[in-house]
Write a structure and sequence with these properties.
Oligomer: single chain
Number of strands: 39
Length: 575
């Protein structure tokens, strides 16, 4: 029967049955939809011609067309849902095109442009249009060699400008209310009292109280401040590399109330806990303090070389709460060991971690390496064979109104989420992961709150992704989780709710663009499953792949879900 179709492609029976399983679930949801059906979306860059033809053939067997996939699915009313999340649930094909373009935007170009793209992902965070910022500082920097003076003064001027914007964004809060938010935002984002945050010392206010305070915060202004400081940091790193005058030891300055530290190319210990601008010109350094971390203000760390060791506390090295924290680390084989809220993490504002080159190790407990809630938590690694190991809510994870995004441009990398919090009572033998391209909202009978957009983008190399529950392009409740791997022979291993799993009015995707890949999960609800109005796409463009599990079936849609599993080429094995 399949061979009689007008546009037959070389796809085996198992592929077709997986397609039909998902589309039948979509048909159930369609029967309950009573809103106008928009025009069919274009095939776009995600589907190649023969793949689009195969999709049309599978739909034809059900008496459907591509336009029938797109309709208003979301049954929740009265909840603010960001546009990308809504589109991903209602229009999975067009949204996959959009997400793939978003992933690809991390491939090259300036960091400033990438941060701008991330800010536009959730339109509520990108309200401020690009405009020139004039920042000048009248201060005595004569303690520095002449070549350093102008770049340092310009950077501090931008920090001063950003602080004014941050104060404006928070002006409707008292200092006590700001402190309450600083402690409440990460606590409620984490929702795990077994992980203690060192800076939380008071009784944390309720989530309703926190949300009431957040309505008085100008979150887009915080993001705008982060974008401007990112551009200034990128310029600073370029200008510093052209300075030839030597610096011996550490030079400490106070420029109009801003503590500044500039260290020469020696072996330094950085144990300071409050420096607004830290510059290290190279060599093998050790960091144990708090650098590049903004808490109601802006702070920047720039390190320009050497094999460095970071053994830092909560909220450090490219992290923020209600501010801007940027860490820009270049060259060297570095070790980053943190706790919670490190290496590209934000709860309100912009936390940015940039690492250029080197074979690095990055580790922590929770909320790190690309995590965000109510802001942007961004991590970029440009090259090297890297290892990332965290507990949960890391490696591209987001909660409400957050964009948590980890981009690795090249190298053979390992991503691991494990062994911190048991996933009891459902699977006490396994662990909670919440990462590797994961978004999560707050589900309640009244609708709760939408989540955010969690992205993991790895563009080249033979990579290994290891997780347990809720990971590898998955999401829960009014969110988006997406993992894209651009090339290489990759391995994905998880336990449950992973590898493109969308649970309860949400959207997820795993996009594999090439190579001989292996996908393994222990039990079901994985490998392209859309449940309870969840929409998923698992797309493998080519290669000889293996899909295995105890009881998962690729391309499964239940309870008004939609699932699309598509493997475009290669000799594949399904177990």
């Amino acid at each position: 029967m399949l061979r009689s179709l007008p546009r037959h492609t070389r796809l085996n029976m198992r592929w077709w049955m997986a397609m039909l399983a998902g589309l039948l679930g979509a048909n159930v949801a369609l029967a309950q939809a009573d809103e106008e059906i928009p025009a069919p979306p274009p095939a776009g860059q995600f589907l190649r011609n023969h793949e689009a033809d195969a999709l049309d053939d599978a739909l034809l067997m059900l008496g459907l067309q591509r336009r029938d996939i797109t309709f208003t699915r979301i049954p929740v009313r009265g909840v603010a849902i960001p546009g990308l999340i809504r589109r991903a649930i209602d229009d999975p094909l067009a949204a996959t095109d959009e997400l793939l373009a978003l992933h690809e935007s991390g491939r090259s170009g300036s960091v400033t442009d990438w941060v701008r793209k991330a800010a536009g992902t959730l339109d509520q965070l990108g309200r401020f249009a690009d405009r020139p910022v004039v920042a000048a500082l009248n201060a005595d920097a004569s303690a520095l060699p002449v070549g350093y003076q102008a770049p340092v003064l310009e950077m501090v001027a931008h920090l001063q400008w950003a602080d004014r914007e941050i104060r404006t964004a928070l002006e409707n809060l008292t200092p006590e209310e700001q402190r309450q938010l600083i402690e409440a935002l990460p606590t409620h984002a984490l929702e795990e009292d077994r992980i203690k945050l060192s800076f939380v010392r008071s009784q944390v206010i309720s989530r309703d109280q926190m949300l009431a305070l957040l309505t008085r915060v100008d979150l887009p202004r915080l993001v705008w401040a982060g974008r401007v400081v990112t551009a200034a940091t990128e310029r600073l790193s370029t200008r510093l590399k052209s300075v030839t005058e030597p610096i011996v030891g550490k030079i400490r300055l106070n420029l109009n109330g801003y503590p500044v530290l500039v260290a020469g190319p020696g072996t330094d210990l950085h144990d300071e806990t409050y420096v607004r601008l830290t510059i290290d010109m190279g060599a093998n350094d050790s960091y144990s303090g708090r650098h590049g971390a903004g808490v109601g203000y802006a702070s920047v760390l720039v390190d320009l070389g050497g094999d460095d060791r970071f053994d830092v506390p909560d909220l450090s090295v490219g992290a923020t709460i209600l501010g801007v924290g940027i860490a820009w680390i270049e060259g060297g084989d570095d070790t980053f060991a943190g706790q919670s809220l490190n290496f590209g993490a934000a709860c309100g504002g912009v936390g940015l971690w940039v690492k250029t080159g080197g074979n690095d190790g990055v580790s922590g407990r929770a909320m790190g390496h690309g995590f965000a809630a109510w802001g942007l938590g961004l991590a970029l690694d440009t090259a090297g064979n890297d290892q990332s190991r965290f507990g949960l809510f890391s490696q591209g994870a987001a909660r409400t109104l957050g964009v948590g995004w980890l981009v690795d441009r090249t190298g053979h990398d390992t991503y691991r989420l494990d062994s911190l919090i048991p996933f009891a009572p459902l699977f006490p033998e396994a662990w909670a992961s919440y990462g590797q391209g994961f978004g999560m909202g707050y589900r309640e009978d009244t609708g709760g709150m939408a989540g955010g957009v969690g992205l993991l983008t790895d563009l080249a190399g033979d990579d290994f992704y290891l997780a347990s529950n809720y990971a590898q392009g998955s999401s829960y409740w009014l969110s988006v989780g997406s993992l894209m791997d651009g090339a290489g022979n990759d391995r994905y291993s998880a336990y449950h709710y992973s590898q493109s799993s969308a649970m309860h009015v949400t959207a997820a995707s795993l996009l594999e663009m090439g190579g001989n890949d292996t996908y393994t999960v222990q039990v079901g609800a994985s490998q392209a499953i859309g449940h309870d109005y969840g929409t998923v796409v698992l797309y493998d463009r080519g290669g000889n792949d293996v899909y295995s599990s105890q009881d998962a079936r690729v391309g499964t849609a239940i309870n008004n879900g939609f699932a699309l599993f598509l493997d475009g080429a290669g000799s594949d094995t399904y177990a």
